[in-house]
Amino acid sequence: SVKDIEKALSREPELNQNAITVLEKRYLKRDNNGKPSEKPIDMFRRVALNIAEADKLYDKNANILASAKEFYEQMVTLRFLPNSPTLMNAGRELQQLAACFVLPVEDSLEGIFEAVKNTALIHKSGGGTGFSFSRLRPKDDVVKTTRGVSSGPVSFMTVFDAATETIKQGGTRRGANMGILRVDHPDIMDFIYAKEDKTKLTNFNLSVGLTEKFMQAVLEDKEYDLINPKTKSVAGQLRAKDVFDKMVQLAWEGGDPGIVYLDRINAENPTPKEGEMESTNPCGEQPLLPYESCNLGSINLGRFVKDGQIDWADLEKTITVAVHFLDNVIDMNKYPIPEIDRQTKRNRKIGLGLMGWADMLAMLCIPYNSDEATKLAEDVMQFIRDKGREKSAALAEIRGDFPTFKDSVYPAKGFKNMRNATITTVAPTGTISIIAGCSSGIEPFFAIAFYRQVMDNNKLVEVSPVFKDIAKREGFLTDELLDQVAETGAVHDIESVPEKWQKAFVTAHDITPFWHTKMQAAFQKFTDNAVSKTVNFPNEATVEDVRRTYLLSYNLGCKGTTIYRDGSRTGQVLNVGTKD
Ligand code: ADP
């Protein structure tokens, strides 16, 4: 009954004012006048109850309310949050719960516009889409039926971009796309330059799909073959180093294109018999098969530091509940098209990750740019993956293995059961980290304090709550200090801050690209899918600095790299309109 539910799910969500504002703007149900018709507590109840319902599929007598209570407690204490579409849509008419999709783009007009249509359906529901355009014949290739010539992948991408621009996502957020082209596609140079004009393809992130062959050719300074995807014949050669240098140059100029290591992604494909992975979702953290989708969820690590120690038992509990939650999401999801429903349920991938990593490090007084931090990153991620796999195996005993388990890579590795073909992903957590009031994903702090313009031209100092707590506890908190920090955002060289805390509250700009990349690689080591991370460069960084970072990320085993040089670009594709 309603009474029982309200009693079981009664703990007040621990939200700050920013979080409440974001929820009211985009997540809560609205009435006909556009006013929120639910409170944040109702949203968490709606999500918990809806996701718990999946238990009934496996046990008619399942105690839904008990599961709902577990889910609810994890969310309102901000230990765990699912990705935005789940918070927005669970228990509502739309019921589309996943953030990540990859759609195939076939080399025919029908195929291309089929993908445009499916993109529209996905964007309407709050999901992001990734595509590989590598199957499209190059520009000026013959089109048989019309005797004309094709306009090529880059020109077709503008059609997807325009469609995205037009469909605002159910009034919640505007769409986001990833576009990938293999480095051996004949149109690769057009693709690399596609966003040089910054008014073009504004709803796309672009990544060049690099192959091992290509990387070897770069290292040996050789030429490599371009292949026409339609005829499979060699269409020319390029000097690998020239192509690599151009990519680096343009990334230095404006952040695009990024790179993904396609062969590496496929070497770790857990279900190779299901097909090849040719693209990722918009922020790069989730490689998927064509027509596959994945739902994400993130653990807020700051919540697990108690008295300067990590509470591993509490963390394990959250991991266990989170895997149960995310597996349920797969069943409760209303997929935009039948192909996606089918493919997603064959491999049942989930993407459990984390946020609040910078918070955790600061609480433990460990500088982000240190070996101690990258070592802890490995330990934490390994723990999440190991405990996540244990729970997935336990679920499989009751619910069955994911349908393609026997043909997957798992049996040969000694796994007896798995409910999910992947468990871990590190997402950017652009919006859910605001809801949780924590640092985003695995990124370092951007600023420890900053001025926010409020009404009447007044300025308000906004401070990292972790810094405030520690400064108070350690006895160095003053109003003057906060003003001083807000001037630059950083605490280094502020004398009233003890040196060890200056180091522990290091900010993105004081962390070298080397440490950004080392951190990404440390998390990647224990991440089934991929890791979302921006490698920040100071404005004065050189093209050579970027080149070195690309090679470092390749050597350290990252699945891709996204860089951003300070001041090189205004406005970004993602989370525009969710952060204001
Ligand atoms: P959130 O914090 O809202 O849950 P993230 O910032 O972690 O989302 O992004 C996770 C994934 O969600 C992205 O890689 C992308 O697939 C999708 N996504 C994020 N923002 C958008 C957006 N504005 N439109 C469409 N998809 C998005």
For the structure shown, list the relevant keywords.
580 residues; alpha/beta; Anaerobic Ribonucleotide-triphosphate Reductase Large Chain; 2 domains; 10-stranded mixed β-sheet; 21 helices; 22 strands; 41% helix
Topology record:
Blueprint: H1 2-8, H2 17-27, H3 40-52, H4 64-76, E1 80-82, H5 84-89, E2 100-103, H6 109-124, E3 128-132, E4 142-143, E5 148-149, H7 152-166, E6 168-169, E7 173-174, E8 177-182, H8 188-193, E9 204-210, H9 212-219, E10 223-227, E11 234-239, H10 240-254, E12 258-261, H11 262-267, E13 279-280, E14 287-288, E15 293-300, E16 305-306, E17 309-310, H12 312-332, H13 338-347, E18 350-355, H14 357-363, H15 371-399, H16 432-436, E19 449-453, E20 459-463, H17 465-473, H18 479-488, H19 499-504, H20 513-524, E21 534-537, H21 543-555, E22 560-565
Parallel strand pairs: 2-3, 3-8, 8-9, 9-12, 15-18, 21-22
Antiparallel strand pairs: 1-15, 2-15, 4-5, 6-7, 10-11, 12-22, 13-14, 16-17, 19-20
Helix pairs in contact: 3-4, 6-7, 10-21, 12-15, 15-20, 20-21
Bound molecules: adenosine-5'-diphosphate.
